[in-house]
## 1
Amino acid sequence: MIADQHVHLERGPYTPENYPDAWLDRYLEQAARAGVQRLGIVEHAYRFHEARGLLPNAWADARCLYPLETYLEFVERSKARGVPVSFGLEMDYVPGAEEGIARFLARYPWDFVHGSVHFVGDVGIDLDEHRPAAAALGRVEIWRRYFALSRMAAESGLFDVLTHPDLPKIFGERAEEPLDAEFAATVEVLRRKDMALECNTAGQRKPVGEIYPVEGYLTVARAAGVPMSIGSDAHVPEDVGAGFADGIALARSAGYTEAVHFIGRRRIAEPLP
């Protein structure tokens, strides 16, 4: 069995008062076409009123539009339908916000929580409108701080998976220096905290044109015994399972023979197809 462990519903035809079952069904139909047997749904936590302030900038605050209660009602309804879906959140890690993040996550017994680093300070490293600010910081500083934040996210113990783990390359601006030491240091924290690393195929659909992370990062993680999950990071039904053949091939090249998914914060390993 293969699970697409990183799927977003957020661009759907719903309002804050209504998540239509038919929208999730479109994802499930695409999953079947793509040979994916299970979905891991993660809404971005910053979309909910209750997460306001957990990202300290106006970009995030402007997007806190939905009540968490409506999402939870949809989760419960979907579980009652018996669909092959696990439900979680993609939670941004921000240093100093750990207590607030923990309180927010405690509002519901999620199946899993993705931990993501999207911001270095106030700079959104995957936001096109923030590219001038990222350039002002410089690539060396962006990559250095990104990996430091990734290790802090893992150390927090709040998350099950570290997502798109070399995200600063999204616009094709790769690190100017070798990253082997950063890979090794981050993998050691993941190993110690019993956290998984994500193989995220969305990078193929971004300007960089390649999967997150590079094979070398996955290889170090596999050698350390760090589990791997695989996700498309789909935001529309058509992208469910996108790039999975390449993602699975990359994972196998790095030495992985299985991928994990989650039910009730319990990690389940399945052989790669």
## 2
Amino acid sequence: MKIKKNSTRFISLFSITICLYGYLSINIGLPAYPSLTDYFGTTQEFVKLSITILLLGFGFSQVIWGTLSEKYGRRLVIIIGTFIAIIGSILTSISNTIEFFTIARFIEGFGAGYASVLSRTIIADALDDKKLHKAMSNLVAIIAFAPAISPILGGEILFLTSWRVVYIVLAIIGGFLLFSSFFHLKETHTNPDKSLNFKTSIFLISKVFHHRRFMGYFLPYSIILSGLIAFYTIAPYIFIQQFKFTENTYSYLLLIVGGSYAFGSILSKKFIEHINSDRILNIGFSLAFISAFLTLLFSILKIYNVYVVLFCMIIYGISCGFISPVCNTKAINALGNEKNSTGNKGITSSILGGGIMIFSSILTLAITNVNFNQMHKLSIYIFSLVILSFTFFWILIERKHLIIMRILRKKN
């Protein structure tokens, strides 16, 4: 069945496609990372640092792409970003030193950074709040598998050929997306702000960061989800080095974790028909705390194997599936109801997507030298993320709700 350009179905499929491409750019090469230490004659820490640099490029560029999309529209930004990402993939494939490899990955991440922000923005351009929650749930459910499928694809290519071919394949995929962007995508931003300049952009970004409601959903979402993304980056070292899986088999374990994230998102979508989004968010945080306490229990019992790691991460993944669509929807529309405001969805989306990757890069850098060879290390990792995420939510959102409720009770 032919899908019309910029129909609801086309926009939904296209947003999923570009988001998958973004996560593919990050994760497709992960199976090769442990072996790159010997190939480039460098240290494991330096190879892991290239992941951090990639995530930084992917994260910081989102604010740039989101802001540019407010002025020049979404389509042009998608085309330019994809082209830069393709160049980065080609440069990565011809790298002969770890330094050149790291720079090339940064270029690739910088270009692909548009994918996360504009996948949300183009559907937010066209859908109202309730439909956006459903579309966001669909988006989260499908792309939840992307970080898991990407290493599988990369692992199989690595098994058959070499790590260089992994990035050639990624460049080819980018080429197909570039073609589709040129000939099939129409502009979704009906009222771009041509007067937007650097000064006003900084003002808008500052306004978003000073918005209590936005930050109340942005910070918990970024912290809790960055924990899952960072887990994908350290998974090769856990499953390959600790549990002795091979490069092309360990990735299949990540499908289970990705599936749990998708499952949580699907449940969130089902629940929104019967209960409000605040209740859904509370369920998500409850599951996050359960996953943290499970890691503590297994740590006390001194049980550390592939099964307990997967079990704890499944619960954590489900919690992320509940939290992500709600926080996405509420944060992206946080400024939309203000007087004389268009919502600046390109900027709010860019800060959302960029925040996740910046938190992920910082988290990845922080655990670069951590050898996850005992359960208590994973327990500390999960507990810290859950407590920090919920603390921000409580202070910025939940505490204010309680204060308002008390005032209303006194009035009555």
## 3
Amino acid sequence: MKTSGSEYFFDCHCHTMTLGQVDITAFLGNLLRNADWEVLLGIVGSSAKSSDKRITSHVKNILNLLTLMQNDLAGIFNTMEDDLKGEFGGESLVDENGLKINGRTYHKLVLTPLLMDFKPAPGAASLTYYPQPRKELRTVINEYSFAIKQYYKERPNGLLYIFPFLGINPAAYAQKELESIIEDSFDFYRLKKSTRSVRGSGLLTLIAGHISPKKMFAGIKLYPPMGFDPWPEDKEERKKVEYLYSYAQGASIPITTHCNDGGFVTVDYKQANRNTNPARWEKVLERFPDLKLNFAHAGVNTSLQFTNPFGKKEKSWTERIFDLIDRYENVYADFSFNGISPKFYEKFSRQLSELEEAGRTRYRDRILFGTDFMINLMAIRSYRDYYSIYEDAVLDIELKHQFASVNPPSFLNL
């Protein structure tokens, strides 16, 4: 298959975090809450031997993740590239021309690492007697700026282009502080007038402006399981999010919001699910209809779902997202983490076929490839393995190219 030398592959949802950046108490607490204790304790399984194998696999995943998190940020970027080159096992997916997937060669891999804001909202309960030391968001921003510069310095001809997203929870900041962080992180007027295309030669110039602490970010990451409410009832909290949405819509800054019933949950599960449900965004989109909004994980539920035998079947979160895609020009979905298994793509392919049969084809322009690396290491061996599964997935090859290369520039305003 003949391909252009200027094509780019996009991972629209990934994370790069060091142990020094995370709230380790909350991280371990979440890990313990979400561990498969039946597996770890050997309660379920055809035999003690099979349970031992499952325990070993689960523990290996945890150790693998923690091992990676011991690196600095530049080291993590290097590891991601080296992994795709097959340096830790398996056949290389990269040659001197770029990333090779399904017969195409992509000149560069564009990452959008999503920063996480671990600052708790005022009044949040602590799990520990002593106060948890936390890195301020601006400190983490500075670390990212240094790491991106370091990667480009060490690997001037490297595979990666890096466009970070700013993770922030408006509830954790006073109005003026929130405005200061946002205005320091984005160049409103440049983004508003941006007409560059990744098909042209302007991408590297654009990236060069993304490696200083000021004006560094390409988008915003919001995370309801850690307390973010898309449409708060409180007037002062509503004012904060309306400022955020107004700024983002005005400058075409993309927003990615977590959207499945799992993840890094630090608040009450009922509250987390209410705020994560895509229905919570309906009033937001009514008020800001041109907002660029990506529902991460495509709303796929991780817990066992029960059908109410006495009432009408409720729409799944994924179905709600497709409804919003049909109604709004700038609503997207990524399937990050879900692609750890070929079975996901089989089910997803059937869902897309059903949309086609109903004459609903807008999804073709709105679905984005994402990995959820490093978090996906809880369930998969490596970054490379996720790409290999995607390459072999039952989805149409041209559709896979669309999700990973054609749709992301529109979402990212490139």
